[in-house]
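Chapter summary example.
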Amino acid sequence: QVQLVESGGGEVQAGESLTLSCTASGSAFTVNAMGWYRQAPGGQRETVAAITNTGVTNYRDSVKGRFTISSDNAKNTVELQMNSLNPEDTAVYYCAANLGYSPNYYPDVWGQGTLVTVSS
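The structure predicted for these 120 residues follows.
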């Protein structure tokens, strides 16, 4: 069974930065892609950024130029560097990974979530 453990959430002021980290652990698994999703209070879960094991990335428009996703395939880790945060970025951020079971890199396993709060 694969587990994802996130860290790095917290409360910051608008304009500041945070880095989220996530590590996948377990036995006999292959990570095809990892990503970050978020769910704001009262909102739906949305994709923030994702990266495949070949380094292809994609971002939602509202974070382009501010957030950077990176991964270490050997360590099964993914990070999300978030700069110029604004209150609209406030949400629970979830790490997710595709292990090859779902099509189109859709997540097969999720982390427990980490709260990011940005105050104005």
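To summarize the output: The chain has a mean pLDDT of 96.
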